[in-house]
Structure formats: structure tokens, C-alpha cells
Amino acid sequence: MRTVHTSVVVPCFNESEVIDAFHAALIAALEPTATTFEICYVDDGSSDRTRIRLRDLAATDPRVRYTSFSRNFGKESAMLAGLRMSQGEVVVLMDADLQHPPELLPRMLELHRHGYDQVIAQRDRTGEGAVRKALSQTYYRLVRRFMDVEVLDGAGDFRLLSRRAVNAVLSLPESNRFSKGLFSWIGFDTVSFTYQNVERAAGQSKWGGRRLLNYGIDGLLSFNSRPLRMAIHTGLWLFLSALGYALWIIANVLLDGVETPGYATIITAIVALSGIQLATLGVIGEYVGRIYHEAKRRPHYVIRETDTSHAAAADALTAEVMESVSSK
Ligand code: UDP
Ligand code: MG
């Protein structure tokens, strides 16, 4: 029997402005539910006072635990560390900026009691810029088409996972982690409900356009090799049309015997083809890079400090996972 029922995992990167408000709101939401709970904060190498704040919180409240990274490893790694740290029967992942309203927790726990292994709180897109809205909607349409797993629009990382779902996620060893996909990949009974999008309470979003674009590419590439297949198809069709074109020119020459100076055609063909070759090479390179990355088998993060012996438990789990991977 586990000693805590609910673990709340919170990745934090430079959140000192909002962390106290968040903590108070979280406690206020959890206490009335009468579940035993722990809060696992993961400081993702913040450069502000977040780490010091978390250390204080952990020292004063036994229900608070924290792990701090040696540098910024990204939200995916922070979530992974939090999941490894968590001991509860259910685990809730949420952001520290109050964009994931803690008031929704009782409802999520209630849905879990009805037997769901994953409860997704899905935000709508109120208050979001029109451009960003359109871009993300296009992206999700693209993802649904090309990925083997289903990812809902607006379903971020605010979700509840049962212990067996967490164990399933932790058993996936890849180092390029795209959680949205992983959560969907593991399956289990999933339910989602929508809540109204809220603005970040304080501080700044860490996701600029470039970071989002990279995240999007990660998502598309990490779940299948369909982009590679697409490159092959494009290449094939181009080859066939080029062949057709060549035959047509030869026929022309044979019939009319005239040779028009095809300078423009040649240049166009060269430019188009080399563009496609470069793009294809890029796709292939991306996959090779990923293989290289996975082959190095680096850990996902380096821990600077953590509250207690839980670090040992996490290490043991890592060793276990690594072993099960290498014995395959
Ligand atoms: N975060 C993190 N590491 C990072 C970037 C973000 O742990 O490198 C955390 C951040 O502290 C917050 C959550 O991930 O709790 C979501 O980040 P943010 O609010 O900046 O993203 P947005 O809501 O704008 O998508
Ligand atoms: Mg946010």
C-alpha cells in the first residue's frame, strides 16, 4: 500500500514570481479533498530564486519534495524527473504558472475514481492570438494525419495518470521525449474535459516561436517514419514526371527536329530537384541524428540537489529501466 494517494508533479523554470501563489492555491485545492498528497517540484535549472524557494517549501512542509537540475534540461526532462520522484497512486502533472487551475483537481480525482487511468484537462483557446490559434490548429491537424498516436488540440500536459499509466510512461526509454505522444501511446482508459484557458499569473512564457517550432518537429518525427516515406514518394513521383518530360522532348526532337534552347527549363528543374534533395537529406539527417542521440544513451538530466533519499529511489528506478532495456 502506498503512503500517499496523490502526487502532484510541477516542473518549474524561473517561476519565483508565481511559485508562492501557485503553492498556496494548490494546497487550498488539495486539502479539502481529504486525500493524502505530496507535491513534487522539479526545478529545471532556474537562474532566479526558484530553487531557494522550493528548498524552503520542502523544509517547512513535509508534503513538499523537490529536485533541482544542474542546468536547464527542458520541460520534458523535468516532467520525467517528477514522474520518477512521485510515489502516489495517482500522479497529476501541472504547470507552475497557474495556467492549469488547481481548482480542477477534485474533478480530475473524481473522474479517476470512476476508473479512468488518464484524465486530461483540455484547455480551449480563449484569449489566444488569432495567428497562434490558426498555427496550432493547423499543426494538430497535421499531427493527426501523420502520427500514429492521437493528440488532442489543447490537451497539454495537464493530466492525471494512474500508477500503472505512470509506470508505462517510465518504461519507455527513449531520450527524445515527446510526452503528448507518449501519453497517447501507452493507451488505457482516457477521459478529457475542457476548461477555459487562463493567462499566466506572473512571469513569462518560455516558449518563443522557435522553441515551439522545434517542439512541433520533435513531435512529428518522434512517432513514426512517415516523413521518410513521404520523401521517397515525392522523389519517385518527381522521377516519373521527369521521365515523362524527357520522353516528350525526345519525341518533339524526333518529330520536328527543332531544338529550342531550354535554358529556363533546365535551371527550373535543377533548382526544384536540388531543393527537394536537400529537404529529403534533411529529413534523413534528422533521423540519423536521433539514432545517434539515442545511441549515446545519456541520462535525461543531471541532478544538482534534491530533498531526501528519494533521489536514491529514482536512481534505482533508472538503473532498473536501463537494465531492462539492455537485456532486450
Ligand atoms: N518549464 C520547464 N522548463 C523549461 C520551460 C518551461 O520546466 O525549459 C515549465 C515552466 O516553469 C512551467 C511549464 O513548464 O511550469 C510551462 O511553461 P510555460 O508556462 O512557459 O509554457 P506555456 O504555458 O507558455 O506553453
Ligand atoms: Mg504557461
Overall spatial form: elongated
Beta-strand fraction estimate: 5-15%
Tell me the series of helices and strands, N- to C-terminal. Answer: EHEHEHEHEHEHHEHHHEH
* Strand line-up in the sheet with most strands: 7-5-6-4-1-2-3-8
CATH homologous superfamily identity of the largest domain: Spore Coat Polysaccharide Biosynthesis Protein SpsA, Chain A
Q: Structural class, please? A: alpha/beta
- Per the CATH scheme, the topology name of the largest domain is Spore Coat Polysaccharide Biosynthesis Protein SpsA, Chain A
Average of per-residue pLDDT values: 81
Give an overview of the whole structure.
This protein is of the alpha/beta class and 328 residues long. The chain starts with 5 loop residues before the first strand and ends with a helix. It has an eight-stranded mixed beta sheet with strand order 7-5-6-4-1-2-3-8, with helices on both faces. It has two domains: 6-224, Spore Coat Polysaccharide Biosynthesis Protein SpsA, Chain A; 226-296. 52% of the residues lie in helices and 13% in strands. Helix 2 (50-60) links the parallel strand 2 and strand 3. It is elongated, with a radius of gyration of 25 Å. The model has no long low-confidence stretch (mean pLDDT 81). It is built from eleven helices and eight strands. It has helices at 19-30, 50-60, 75-85, 105-113, 130-146, 163-170, 179-186, 209-222, 226-256, 263-296, 310-326, and strands at 6-12, 37-43, 64-69, 90-93, 118-123, 159-162, 190-195, 303-306. It binds uridine-5'-diphosphate (UDP) and magnesium ion. Uridine-5'-diphosphate (UDP) binds at residues 11-13, 15, 44, 72, 74-75, 78, 95-97, 99, 200, 205-207.
